[in-house]
Design a protein that fits this description.
Structural class: alpha+beta
Length: 616
């Protein structure tokens, strides 16, 4: 199941092509993919059932990022290069070389049009990558018929077969000038860059005519050729030197915040993307200029051959400061990259503020709704209680505090129950309420706006009795009732403890669920800690030679039986304990360790800020 951050981000995915980057809990890239529609593709990972490797992948995803592109072809190219850079664990096929083909016009005397899977800086013209080898082969065959180059080897002594059928330029039969080759190469490049209208119209006419003449196989061939063009050429960007050794900066400004995107282009592709989002107190162009200077001077990034920036940025200032060429392209491939960076800056900005709005809706908005439903003033501070015991042993209670719909762990409190023996929810509630709010009254501290009891009428009535009859307080109390599956079912409130009408899909109901889950978790973890401590203490008491002072000394130093096992006998002796007694303590720490399932779980609450309330 997706975490809350992912659930929120899924709602904001754009209906655009791009690459998505899946990360695990350690922020490591574990999978990279491309999509014609980011919203549909990324959502499918978390909204569909999976098996095998895909299920394993989804279980490890803690967050994701994405880069928006203009076309599916651009996302394909970006995917390949990101995989080569990050080597994600789940991208097995593309780790050690691309599986996608390219069309290449070779840089040699009598050039050829070939299919390759390796891109080199050899002066050739590379087009691609293409979705599959069949589409690339179909496009190459079509071009060889329409704009033929050399198809045969250079060792032919006479005109080859392909020359006679019009698929070879004929350098095997006669000398072909460089000018004739250049003209043919220009036509091929124009076609592969998207100027396909003439050829496509001709194929469509031939397909219609073949179908009319009932030559269906030939019509199917024309149909496939049109399909290859649509898959590989419309639109397709050439991999050129425009993508080599340049950094592209763009920004989007709104609501007083600036979003900056950086694309680092090396070896004909995007190898890295950086981003930033922060409040803007100056002109956005000035902020971007300052960011660029710091990007290279303070973050140790290598300077590229050229930096591309938007209009109105002081190119001269950046160039003089960094001693590198700075340009603002108005058209062509460089301008396309600048536009792509701008689009990603805009998407990142909009996503950030939509996430903030959604968070506001889940917290402050949910509190406002809950306040209205209960007919109470704004419930800024909500305190919630839950009790925990196992068959009446080691009873404890815990309290969590939510301010403006968010947990404030500094104010969490833990209670060891002192006056109640066994499992008695009514008396336990009364003791905790009496201790908590009696103390706040004595210390003159602020009271909460609402008390939520994890339970039904018993707990609510017990709390009300102490508040009204003993403490003379009028704090409203509501009960969070669970169903038979231990999930939040209803909220009860008022003199008659009626069910409060809340839609299960509403932010207010979800807030109650979060509070109830949190207070239950906190109470259970505290109970495990207490149980473990008592088990620790009782074991030490059973060892000959261990009295109250020695027991206290050991417990303060080691805290847990696990720590004793790890520390060993020498560590115990350092406390001034004789070797024989130290050996007995160490041995006891190992005895029956698997019988106590909570012995290794005592550190859960050491990360919490909640303090134990020892008030009477």
């Amino acid at each position: 199941m997706a975490n809350q951050l992912i659930e929120d981000k899924l709602k904001l995915l754009p209906d655009q092509p791009g690459c998505y980057i899946m990360k695990n809990a350690r922020d490591q890239v574990i999978y990279i993919g491309k999509a014609k529609n980011l919203k549909n593709r990324v959502r499918s990972y978390f909204k569909s059932s999976h098996t095998g490797k895909t299920a394993q992948l989804v279980s490890e995803i803690a967050d994701y990022d994405y880069i928006v592109t203009k076309t599916d072809k651009e996302s394909l190219l970006l995917e390949i290069n990101l995989i080569q850079k990050h080597q994600p664990h789940y991208n097995i096929k593309l780790k050690h070389g691309t599986m996608y083909p390219y069309l290449k016009i070779t840089n040699e005397e009598d050039p050829q049009l070939i299919i390759t899977s390796e891109v080199k800086n050899d002066g050739g013209y590379y087009f691609g990558p293409y979705p599959n080898v069949y589409a690339a082969t179909g496009t190459r065959d079509l071009l060889q018929k329409t704009y033929p180059l050399r198809k045969c080897s250079k060792n032919e002594k006479r005109a080859c077969f392909y020359y006679h059928i019009g698929q070879c330029i004929g350098c095997c039969d006669h000398h072909v000038s460089k000018e004739e080759y250049d003209d043919q190469i220009k036509r091929i490049r124009r076609f592969l860059n998207g100027d396909v209208k003439t050829i496509k119209n001709d194929l469509e006419n031939k397909m219609a005519q073949a179908a009319e003449d009932m030559h269906y196989e030939r019509a199917a061939e024309y149909r496939d050729q049109i399909s290859y063009i649509e898959q590989t050429v419309e639109p397709q960007n050439i991999m050129s030197k425009q993508y080599n050794n340049r950094d592209v900066f763009a920004f989007y400004m709104d609501k007083g915040w600036i979003s900056i995107q950086v694309f680092m282009l090396r070896q004909f592709s995007i190898i890295k993307r950086d981003s930033a989002l922060f409040p803007c107190y100056d002109d956005p162009e000035e902020e971007l200029t300052s960011y660029i200077i710091q990007f290279y001077q303070h973050q140790n990034h290598t300077l590229p051959k050229e930096i591309l920036v938007p209009k109105k940025v002081d190119n001269t200032l950046i160039s003089d400061t960094l001693d590198v060429a700075v340009a603002t392209p108005q058209r062509g491939d460089k301008h396309k990259m600048l536009k792509m960076a701008y689009n990603n800056a805009k998407v990142a900005h909009q996503e950030k503020f939509r996430l903030l709005e959604m968070q506001e809706e889940k917290t402050v908005g949910a509190v406002e709704t809950l306040s209205q439903v209960l007919n109470l003033p704004y419930l800024k501070v909500i305190e919630s209680f839950d009790h925990s015991n196992i068959q009446g042993t080691n009873p404890v209670s815990a309290m969590v505090v939510y301010e403006d719909g968010k947990p404030n762990k500094k104010l969490y409190r833990k209670y060891n129950i002192k006056s109640v023996k066994g499992a008695n929810e009514y008396l336990t509630t009364q003791e905790v309420i009496r201790r908590r709010y009696g103390r706040l009254l004595r210390e003159g501290k602020a009271l909460p706006d609402l008390i939520l009891m994890d339970g039904g009428a018993i707990e609510v009535n017990a709390a009300k009795e102490v508040l009204v009859d003993e403490l003379n307080l009028s704090i409203p109390v509501a009960g969070m009732v669970k169903d038979d599956k231990h999930r939040t079912a209803n909220l009860i409130f008022g003199e008659d403890l009626a069910i409060v009408p809340l839609e299960p899909t509403s932010p207010a109901f979800h807030l109650l669920q979060r509070i109830q889950d949190e207070v239950h978790r906190f109470a259970i973890s505290f109970h495990r800690q207490v149980r473990s401590k008592h088990s620790f203490s009782s074991r030490l008491d059973a060892i000959p030679g261990v009295g109250p002072k020695t027991r206290t000394k050991v417990m303060r130093h080691f805290k847990t039986l696990k720590a004793i096992r790890q520390g060993g006998v020498p560590e115990i002796q350092k406390l001034g304990i004789p070797e024989k007694v130290a050996l007995a303590i160490h041995k006891t720490a190992w005895e029956g360790q698997t019988d106590d399932p909570y012995a290794a779980e005592t550190r859960d609450d050491q990360t919490e800020n909640g303090k134990e309330d020892k008030s009477l």
